[in-house]
TrEMBL record:
Protein name: Rhomboid-like protein 19
Organism the protein comes from: Kingdonia uniflora
InterPro entries in the cross-refs: Rhomboid-like_sf (IPR035952), TMEM115/Pdh1/Rbl19 (IPR013861)
GO annotations of cellular component type: Golgi apparatus; membrane
Chain residue ranges for the region called Disordered: 256-309
Keywords, comma-separated and alphabetical: Membrane, Transmembrane, Transmembrane helix
Length: 309
């Protein structure tokens, strides 16, 4: 079973969820608005020098694509990645993920821009309008990495678990040869790693009521080649002890309140079950598409037979 099955045949342009269609409409509308009214960029995009008092920019910037190529990539990305993840997470959690990752990415980009200004004294970092949905898209790819880590995506011939790392590495490499990399690179990097933090420590599983995914298969070091993991793991373990220890206590407290005892190792087991549910959901989706195509074929055959009679 592979993710390509969802994107092949007549199902390629079908199966898009209502929420993803709505988000695509928002991205298209935002692009049209800034093209017709260029001055609206000052109120919708993230301009660090103006974020105070225009604090709403931390939210609106993520849904405004200033370039047509960005709008096309974002709309296509949310439609196709959304039809894989939303049925597994549920519409509410999928929407919450987008809201949280978009906001956290904007906060990190704002903080970085201010820090760069104080280090370099370049006003470019304060007054460049920053916007785009690519931070959320990179975060959604981390969701694909979590649920379908070993699925191979063609024509890249690369497993899904390496896609976020490949995207970040490629973006960094391109930034050395292109101007204006600050307009997209921070969003991609922060979108990738804030989404990992959310999925690793904050996302609540509705079935177990636990937060996060503590499995080794989703550790921070899995973003890096195996040869670097002995170096990355000790560093990442500090953050893991701080954050995961806090949320494990929270999980146990909630579990105690509900009157049930936590099972040892339930975190990794639940992470494995989440991946199994993802695989089952994918199989059911493909089976439904196959039945739909089979039904359409039979209908055409009956119609042809009736016309021949």
């Amino acid at each position: 079973m592979s993710l390509q099955g969802l994107f092949g045949g007549t199902s390629f342009f079908s199966g898009f969820t209502r929420l993803c269609k709505g988000l695509s409409a928002v991205l298209v509308a935002g692009h049209i608005v800034v093209q017709i009214f260029p001055s609206s960029v000052s109120y919708l995009a993230l301009i660090p020098a103006w974020t105070i008092p225009f604090a709403w920019n931390l939210i609106t910037a993520g849904y405004v694509e200033q370039l047509v190529i960005g709008m096309v990539i974002s709309t296509v990305g949310i439609l196709f990645i959304g039809k894989v993840l939303e049925p597994i997470w549920g519409s509410k959690e999928f929407f919450k993920f987008i809201i949280v990752v978009n906001f956290l990415t904007s906060v990190c980009v704002f903080t970085t821009a201010i820090a760069l200004y104080y280090v370099t004294r370049e006003e470019y970092y304060l007054y460049t309008p920053l916007s785009g949905f690519h931070g959320v898209l990179s975060g959604l790819l981390v969701g694909v990495k979590q649920i379908f880590p070993d699925q191979e995506l063609s024509p890249l011939k690369i497993k899904a678990k390496w896609i976020p790392s490949f995207l970040v590495l490629l973006s960094i490499a391109i930034s050395f040869f292109t101007a204006g990399s600050s307009a997209y690179l921070p969003n991609l990097i922060f979108g990738t790693y804030t989404s990992w933090i959310y999925l690793r420590y904050l996302q609540r599983n509705p079935e177990t009521n636990y937060k996060g995914d503590p499995s080794d298969e989703f550790a921070f070091s899995t973003f890096f080649p195996d040869t670097l993991r002995p170096v990355i793991d000790p560093i990442a373990s500090v953050l893991d002890r701080v954050l995961w220890g806090k949320f494990r206590v929270s999980n146990e407290a909630e579990n105690y309140t509900s009157g049930s005892a936590p099972l040892p190792g339930s975190g990794p087991i639940e992470a494995s079950r989440r991946r199994e549910r993802g695989a089952r959901a994918l199989e059911e989706r493909l089976a439904a598409d196959g039945l739909s195509e089979s039904g359409s074929t039979q209908e055409l055959l009956h119609k042809d037979a009736a016309e021949n009679v």
